[in-house]
Amino acid sequence: MVESTLTGPVVSGRVVSSRMPAEPARPIATISAAPAKARPTGVAELDRVLGGGLVPGAVVLLAGEPGVGKSTLLLDVAQQWAAGGSPSLVVSGEESVSQVRLRAERMGTLHDQLYLAAESDLGAVLGHLDAVKPGLLVLDSVQTISTPGTEGVPGGVTQVRAVTAALVAIAKERNIATVLVGHVTKDGQVAGPRVLEHLVDVVLHFEGDKHSSLRMVRGVKNRFGAADEVGCFEMHEGGITSLADPSGLFLTRYAEPVPGTCVTVAMEGRRALVTEVQALIGATVAGSPRRTVSGLDSARLAMVLAVLQRRTERLTLHDREVFAATVGGIRVVEPAADLAVALAVASGGLNLAIAPHLVAIGEVGLTGEVRRVGAVPRRLAEAARLGFRFALVPPGCGPESTGVKADNMQVTEVTDVRAALQWAAKFSAE
């Protein structure tokens, strides 16, 4: 009888044998969760997105367009971390330490436990970690760091993969909370290999229009919390600050009601934001009139215009220019804003001012029906908190259907656009 000499499976022509693990497997109930407890960063809106703060040993990838404010935000986080009693290290591969110092001085984020270094070599970065022994590492950016033992240029697929894998390994080994800044491509995706997002624990997107002060940090992946949270910030000359209640940025206060405006409640992740939609109906033109949008989906606007033209009376839009926009730089593309867009356009076209304390929530179908959308109770609660007294919602979304009442608010279910216009006119007269 011939005994087999194989001790394990064959992989790539080699026999893989078992070996003693570094740490034996233990029952899950005997494992402590204390080492994975998040530590607040001191920046409330970022903590909201992270799920409470930064976990020691966790690696966070923060991606965003150039100039949106990534370095500014993370410099504030590093200062707050240092003020909490643990050293923080900011390594910049794009700026000199003097440039970073100037920004920190302008922001008022100087601290004795906040260390700066300008490096583009991975070995030098590891040397700084040995010397400083920080609790937080901010690397700006991962595409600028290279390691001599790996082929390719800095920012290339091979280099980014190798650098990230090494930083993840050392973060886990030393329990260093690590934030990597990442570049994005022209279509808004994280630059580099897709495996980069798989290696890290958290992926955040930093969004914002350079012409607006509003900035948003959106969670895309989070192993320690919800992956659909959104944090709101305001950029100003002195740096960046958290916006715990950003809805005021997306509303315009009028002395008298103005035609062509309607308010809706948009959902950004789990967050309800009361947002104003404005529409201007231009002059009649020959040929193809312009349809211009800002902050809205142009395709959905075109659909809403077609529905209004077909399903309502006294409203002619096919030969008139239409301009529609949101207030405050927020982008609203969800179907729940359809009803507000329709009312704003009808209000502008009929020169009928809508009640300033009215919110409209619902998707509009091609037959003019108003369809249900998600998170209506949460949207109504936010509108009621800000003092809105009337709400138009899809069928099945009112208090009698959901059992959730909005305090001091009259909620009316509307079946179609025509009914919504009639109720809006009634509320305006009250």
Automatic annotation (TrEMBL):
Any coiled-coil regions, as ranges: none
Annotated spans, Lon-protease-like: 321-430
GO terms classed as biological process: recombinational repair
Example of a GO MF term: ATP binding
RecA family profile domain sequence ranges: 35-184
Keywords, in A-Z order: ATP-binding, DNA damage, DNA repair, DNA-binding, Hydrolase, Metal-binding, Nucleotide-binding, Stress response, Zinc, Zinc-finger
InterPro entries, A to Z: AAA+_ATPase, DNA_repair_RadA, P-loop_NTPase, RecA_ATP-bd, Ribosomal_Su5_D2-typ_SF, Ribsml_uS5_D2-typ_fold_subgr
Pfam families linked: AAA_25
Binding locations of ATP: 64-71
GO cellular component: cytosol
Intervals of motif RadA KNRFG motif: 221-225
Domain writeup: The middle region has homology to RecA with ATPase motifs including the RadA KNRFG motif, while the C-terminus is homologous to Lon protease.
NCBIfam families named in the record: sms
Function: DNA-dependent ATPase involved in processing of recombination intermediates, plays a role in repairing DNA breaks. Stimulates the branch migration of RecA-mediated strand transfer reactions, allowing the 3' invading strand to extend heteroduplex DNA faster. Binds ssDNA in the presence of ADP but not other nucleotides, has ATPase activity that is stimulated by ssDNA and various branched DNA structures, but inhibited by SSB. Does not have RecA's homology-searching function. Plays a role in repairing double-strand DNA breaks, probably involving stabilizing or processing branched DNA or blocked replication forks.
Family: Belongs to the RecA family. RadA subfamily.
Protein's name according to its UniProt entry: DNA repair protein RadA
Organism: Micromonospora pattaloongensis
Name of the gene encoding the protein in the UniProt record: radA
